[in-house]
Specification:
Number of helices: 10
Number of strands: 11
Radius of gyration: 20 Å
Order of helices and strands: HEEHHEEHEHHEEEEEHHHHE
Helix content: 25-40%
Structural class: alpha/beta
Strand content: 5-15%
Largest sheet: 4 strands, mixed
Number of domains: 1
């Protein structure tokens, strides 16, 4: 079968998603029968009105701020322009060693000292809809062919897994920002969200693919109720204070039974190890400096609001190191692209396949 681009993107704007879900007042649930109708209405007529991200992103806190607040070492490796280049206040950190080219990853794996190695890593593809490309787009966004994105993913996976020492302590997560308009037969979960800016939804929407890879993941298909915020829950469990939720918004999902990625580890031989690591780390944070303590981390990480991303343009990874030496890579492949921009597709349930 020939791998070639689609003729056009598939409908996945809020109106199209509502049509795809096909809610029935009679049975009080979703029929999941409107995918063909949405395709016919938006594409067969010769145009699509799907909503893209605007020229600039709104100024709001990001996962980078959360990690910096807690002295957690992080880094972005981007195959193209990083998505958060669209957020003006991050323009200065984009010029620091927090953001590097994807081609630097292999050399860093081989040469970087363990003390400088980041605890959380974000890998970004070269986005199809970016106006500037450093090489061929590889984000698997329709109408792209499949091969470029698969080659990109295979390359990143191979680089990480070949480093056996770091791989032994790695959780590698592959996911997408939305369902992309593709068919799904499973009705969404009832999860409500209301934002003062007018964004609102009542379900998780169509599921999106996710793969959790590494020594901690069992070889099974997870049935846990997960969404994009499940990754943020895992970050908070691993690097936050004991009992600390990532944010009030994420806590709202937790109260509506959305689980952490950690729940997908159940059944693996390493499950107890992961749980012990998180508990030990949280206990350590309670007994040492934290964002709520007066003591500032020795490495100069942001603490108690003293320093922010935009106030520390010259700081590199060496200066933003955390207390933990447990090397963990959380690859949130492209997830940031819509974690903060829920208007486009709402809260999408992850189809979590653990390998």
């Amino acid at each position: 079968m020939e791998d070639r681009p689609l003729d056009s993107d598939l409908p996945h704007d809020p109106e199209a998603v509502a049509k795809q879900l096909a809610y029935s007042e009679v049975i009080g649930s979703y029929l999941m029968t409107g995918f063909v109708k949405a395709f016919e209405d938006e594409l067969m007529c010769g145009f699509t009105n799907h909503r893209d991200t605007g020229v600039l992103l709104p100024d709001q806190t990001t996962v980078y701020d959360w990690l910096l607040d807690r002295g957690v070492k992080w880094r972005v490796y981007a195959a193209g322009l990083p998505f958060f280049a669209l957020m003006p206040r991050l323009s200065r950190p984009l010029l620091t060693s927090h953001f590097r080219r994807l081609g630097d990853l292999l050399n860093d794996l081989a040469d970087e000292h363990p003390d400088d190695w980041p605890q959380v890593i974000f890998i970004e593809p070269d986005y199809y809809d970016c106006p500037v490309h450093l090489h061929d787009p590889c984000d698997n966004h329709p109408p792209l062919a499949i091969a470029p994105g698969e080659v990109f993913l295979a390359q990143v996976y191979q680089w990480f897994s070949n480093d056996t020492k770091r791989w032994a302590r790695t959780v590698f997560i592959v996911t997408y920002d939305e369902h992309g308009g593709f068919f799904d037969h499973v009705p969404p979960l009832p999860v409500k969200y209301r934002n003062p800016n007018g964004v609102a939804f009542d379900t998780t929407g169509p599921r999106i693919p996710a793969i959790v890879v590494g020594p901690f993941a069992p070889k099974t298909v997870s049935k846990e109720p997960l969404d994009n915020t499940s990754i943020l829950q895992l970050i908070a469990e691993r690097f936050g204070n004991a009992g600390e939720a990532y944010s009030s918004e994420v806590a709202g999902r937790m109260h509506q039974n959305i689980k952490s990625v950690f729940s997908a580890f159940r059944g693996s031989r390493q499950y107890r190890t992961v749980r012990s690591v998180c508990r030990a780390h949280n206990a350590n944070r309670q007994s040492t400096a934290s964002p709520h303590c007066n003591e500032r981390p020795a490495t100069g990480a942001r603490s108690g609001g003293e320093e922010s991303l935009e106030q520390a343009p010259g700081r590199g990874v060496r200066e933003i190191s955390g207390a933990s030496r447990l090397y963990k890579i959380l690859n949130l492949y492209k997830i940031l692209k819509k974690t903060l921009n829920v208007e486009r597709s709402g809260s999408n349930l992850l189809r979590s396949t653990c390998v």
